[in-house]
Amino acid sequence: MTEPTHTPKPVAPTGATLAGGPLPEPMPSAPPRSQWVDVWHQFRHHKGAMAGGIVFLFIVLAVFLGPYLWDLDPSKIDFRARNNGPTWAHPFGTDQLGRDMMARLMAGGQVSLAVGITAMLLALFLGSLVGILAGYFRRLDNILMRITDLFLALPLLPLLLVMVLLFREPLSATFGIETGIFILIVTAIGVTSWMPTARIVRGDVLALKEREFVLAARSIGTTNLMMILRHILPNVISPIVVSATLGIANAIITESALSFLGLGFPPDFPTWGRLLFDAVDYMQQNPERVVMPGIAISLTVLSVNYLGDGLRDALDPRIRGR
To answer: Rg for the chain (alpha carbons), in Å?
Structure first.
């Protein structure tokens, strides 16, 4: 008795069908691009943002690396060279005490940028915290927004002046003059400029907490803390980043205004606003002493604003890809 034979089914060769026709070759699929690649692609096509980034990077490098190339002491006094115009020895001239203006401009830029960035971080933290709490917890929304409206209604400059006059001496006695004034200026600017960030973040959180992925996470028992950290906070990064860039510009302007009014850092501690304040009496004799700090403040604020515009467009998914 013979075993039954099984006729094998014909197998189509590679690249051909059973009928003899060629099979289409599979198209290689491109790996999906990450979100940050799309953000960078959109950002680098924003001409204003790229120009602002280049200018801001140049200012930062000039301020922090320039003193290593131009190593004159910004506090060195030379009465024989006071109130001089631009020369080879002092390209930006000297002040009323003979101190080199280029060195003081770079030293003042370090202080102004440090104040702007630190005050921005404080305002960003307070604004994001208030905005997320107000948008996520309904019972906190009314009281937090009323506090925000109260701060928005307060006159900013008089409030800053009162804070400086009240806390200048105690902080200077505790931390030293320079550190105490730095803490005071940063705190005063930070606690009076968080309100726009809070309102923007609250609006985004109110829209996000009704989205399907948030409802799904809540249905499986995700705690409020993990919900905020994993699902809410990553999706409000866009307005926070834009607020950060604009906050730097506002902080630099506010610090310059306080220093220009003589209520900022001490006279021997240069900032761009303090340089403007010291140069007012010599505006006709040495106009470059007013022009150079003014140009530095204007270029910094303008470049940061253009950076904020570019980041807003790049981080907005409705605009990205156009």
So the answer is: 29
Q: Is 16 helix (H, G, I), strand (E, B) or coil?
A: strand
Looking at CATH, the fold of the domain delimited by 59-66+103-319 is given as MetI-like fold (1.10.3720)
Reply yes or no on whether the pLDDT at 6 is more than 60.
no
- Structure-token pair, residue 118: 């630190």
Mean pLDDT, residues 147-154: 89
Count of Cβ atoms closer than 10 Å to residue 203 Cβ: 15
CB atoms within 10 A of CB 253: 18
Output the six-digit token pair for 159. Answer: 């409030």
- Nearest-5° Cα angle at 249, 248 to 250: 95
The C-alpha atoms of residue 114 and residue 135 are separated, in whole angstroms, by 31
Domain range annotation of the chain = 59-66+103-319
pTM here is: 0.79
- What would the mean pLDDT of 260-267 be, rounded to a whole number? 76
Other residues' Cβ atoms within 10 Å of the Cβ of residue 211:
13
**Residues of the chain by 3-state class (helix, strand, coil), percent to 5:** 70, 0, 30
In 3-state terms, what secondary structure has residue 100?
Answer: strand
From the list 256, 253, 249, the residue with the least C-alpha distance to 308 is: 249
pLDDT band at 1 (very low <50, low <70, confident <90, very high): very low
Contact yes or no for 97/167 (Cβ under 8 A): no
- Token pair belonging to 1: 């008795």
Measure the CA–CA gap between 106 and 63, rounded to whole angstroms. 5
| Contact call for residues 240 and 124 (beta carbons, < 8 A) | yes
- Per-residue confidence (pLDDT) for residue 65, from 0 to 100: 92
- State the Cα–Cα distance between residues 279 and 291, nearest whole angstrom: 10
CA–CA distance, 66 with 108 (Å, rounded to integer): 12
96 pLDDT above the threshold of 50: yes
Let me know: does 293 contact 107? Beta carbons within 8 Å. no
